[in-house]
Write a structure and sequence with these properties.
Blueprint: E1 15-16, H1 25-30, E2 43-44, H2 46-67, E3 69-72, E4 75-78, E5 81-84, E6 87-91, E7 94-95, E8 103-104, E9 110-111, H3 113-125, E10 130-137, E11 143-149, E12 152-153, H4 154-160, E13 165-166, H5 175-184, E14 192-193, H6 196-199, E15 209-210, H7 218-224, E16 238-242, E17 248-251, E18 270-272, H8 275-280, E19 284-285
Parallel strand pairs: 6-11, 17-19
Antiparallel strand pairs: 1-2, 3-10, 4-5, 5-6, 7-13, 8-9, 10-11, 11-12, 14-15, 16-17, 16-18
Length: about 290
């Protein structure tokens, strides 16, 4: 009697699991001819492999999004913060002054260097299309990116012209440009100022920077600017104060108690230019 033809193998989407070592239960299952008997291979159903692949893709999406280029004409919020479409972008490797920051010029006068940094950037490339290469996302949900306009490195331009400092905690890319700006007394370097990262948490011990020796009263002038009776610029009208519990509270112009908040440094008051800035400083909105 002729031998019967071998049964055709049914096709299915399965993943075989190869097990090395002693022939335990899994090893026997993975070997169809173990002990001379045909056994069913150990396999994962197709729906499981598909779910696993989908999970891996979801985990990779944030990294893929960060790596993608973002292009378009931006809205320039501050010297180092822009928005393209719905994407908020923070220029990486540098730190520019916030729009509420004041500096001292070469005549010993206060001036709105934070507003100037933003406005100079707008004049330089504000109406042009930018290309930003996303690198990561910060704790506030902004994309950290390196940005270019027609091949020009925007971070490099800002630092070279004294409108930002190299943020060496994360990058050393712009240290040479900062040194050149300091020697040329460009932008903020023309007089005295507080480093942008120190400005946000400034106190009486905060260091004063400048291309030349700062005036003796520089500290008093710069600290007082945070709580002068008049806002440092029309863009910075949110008032912040400290309540009896030591909690920082911010008040927008529409707040019920806005007019009653007196801006005096002895009471720990300060001006903010945006709700984001106030919340980043640890303040919450008034409940009244």
């Amino acid at each position: 009697m002729p031998p019967s033809s071998p049964r055709p193998q049914a096709t299915s989407h399965r993943v075989k699991l190869t097990v090395h070592g002693a022939p335990g239960p899994l090893a026997r299952a993975s070997n169809p001819l173990h002990n001379g008997r045909r056994t069913r291979p150990f396999a994962l159903p197709f729906r499981m492999t598909r779910s696993f692949a989908a999970a891996i893709l979801l985990l990779a999406l944030p990294q893929l999004a960060q790596a993608a280029d973002i292009a378009g004409v931006p809205k320039i919020r501050e010297g180092d913060q822009i928005t393209i479409g719905t994407t908020r972008i923070r220029l990486g490797g540098i730190d520019a002054p916030s729009t509420d920051q004041l500096c001292i010029n070469n005549k010993g006068e206060r001036w709105t260097c934070g507003v100037a940094a933003r406005d100079e950037l707008i004049k330089h490339v504000g109406g042009k299309s930018w290309t930003c290469h996303g690198r990561s996302t910060d704790r506030r949900g902004r994309t950290l990116a390196h940005c270019e306009v027609e091949g020009e490195d925007i971070q490099k331009w800002l630092v070279s012209n004294g409108w930002a400092l190299a943020f060496t905690r994360t990058s050393h890319d712009y240290e040479a440009e900062e040194k050149a700006a300091r020697e040329a007394k460009a932008g903020m370097w023309q007089g005295a100022f507080i480093a942008p990262w120190d400005w946000r948490v400034r106190n009486k011990k905060t260091a004063i920077l400048g291309a030349t020796k700062p005036p003796e009263n520089a500290s008093a002038i710069l600290l007082a600017s945070a709580s002068g009776e008049v806002a440092p610029s029309p863009d910075c009208t949110i008032k912040g104060n400290v309540n009896s519990s030591g909690e920082c509270i911010y008040h927008q112009p529409t707040s019920r108690w806005y007019a009653q908040i007196k801006m005096k440094i002895s009471k720990g008051t300060r001006w903010f230019c945006s709700v984001e800035e106030a919340e980043a400083a640890g303040c919450r909105e008034t409940r009244r």
